[in-house]
Design goal:
Number of strands: 2
Shape: globular
Strand order of the largest sheet: 1-2
Order of helices and strands: HHHEHE
């Protein structure tokens, strides 16, 4: 569980979805139903939009490379 150490030590902040995020998650899941985009990845997109986050670390890059966020043309995917 070493990958959780940065969260446990405060290096990363845990952010909860808001009611507005849930509305956006629903919109994303419906809009990308052909992908299909699940609620987990849609929640990451929604919260990233709200916080203005331009880059995401992801092992499964497919969904995040297809989804077009509202605040930027596309996410920068790390690593």
């Amino acid at each position: 569980m070493k990958f959780l150490d940065p969260v446990r030590t405060g290096m990363f902040e845990l952010v909860e979805p808001t009611v507005e995020d849930v509305d956006r998650i629903h919109e994303l899941v419906a809009g990308y139903a052909d992908l299909p985009l699940g609620a987990t990845d849609a929640s990451v997109v929604s919260i990233a939009e709200r916080l203005g986050v331009p880059a995401l670390a992801a092992l499964d890059r497919l969904h995040f490379s297809v989804v077009r966020p509202r605040h930027i043309p596309a996410f920068t995917l790390l690593p």
